[in-house]
Amino acid sequence: NSRGVASLLKDTIPVTEFSASGPFEGHDLLRRGFTSVKSELLPSHPLELSEKNFRLNQDKTNFDMLRNVQGLHAPLKLQMEFRAVKQVQRLPFLHSSNMALDTLRGNDGCIGFEDILNDPSQSEVMGEPHTMMEYKLGLL
Q1: CA-CA distance, 73 to 70, in Å (whole number)?
Q2: How far is residue 29's CA from residue 49's CA, in Å, rounded to a whole number?
Q3: 51 to 10, 47, 54, 58, 120: CA distances (angstroms)
Q4: Percentage of the chain exceeding pLDDT 90
Q5: Which end of the chain has less Cβ packing within 10 Å, N or C?
Q6: What is the CA radius of gyration of the chain?
Q7: What are the CB-based long-range contacts (under 8 Å, 24+) for 91-98?
Q8: Per-residue model confidence (pLDDT) at position 125
Q9: Rounded CA separation 27/4 (Å)
């Protein structure tokens, strides 16, 4: 019987992907998934990408300047301090101001939008402290 099945499979023609081509072709959700309009949009202004990467560009410039002035060890030490400060966080139900990170960057004396109106991405989280801590530790 296995010989018969093999001969049947040998004689079959491989089926290629059937799709209607032309201006009225529909989007195949099963093969391509949902379309995202947001991913297809271009930045609305030429400076938008620059503003999104402002902090990264500023850090790179500061590290380059520090390397030229003090040598290679200075930016490496500062990057290690940044990583150490970023790892220290408060409990999940408490808002963290990241004051140590602001101090390292030299922004502790500056008053910005997030200081007055708060950063929208860090909205207040109300909830049961024990439940939130168990969720963060993976116990739930």
Answers
A1: 8
A2: 31
A3: 60, 6, 5, 11, 17
A4: 19
A5: N
A6: 27
A7: 91/129, 91/132, 91/133, 92/125, 92/132, 92/133, 92/135, 92/136, 93/125, 93/126, 93/127, 93/129, 93/132, 93/133, 95/122, 95/124, 95/125
A8: 61
A9: 40
What pLDDT was estimated at residue 65?
95
pLDDT of residue 21: 55
Burial label for 44, CB within 10 Å (0-12, 13-18, 19+), is: exposed
pLDDT of 51 > 60? The answer is: yes
Q: Which residues have C-beta within 8 Å of that of residue 84, sequence separation ≥ 6?
A: none
Residue 98: Cβ-neighbour burial (10 angstroms; 0-12, 13-18, 19+)? middle
Average of per-residue pLDDT across 6-19: 52
Q: Which amino acid is at 138?
A: G
Q: What percent of the chain has pLDDT over 70?
A: 67
Give the C-alpha separation, 114 to 99, whole Å. 13
Is residue 127 within 8 A of residue 136, CB to CB? The reply is: no
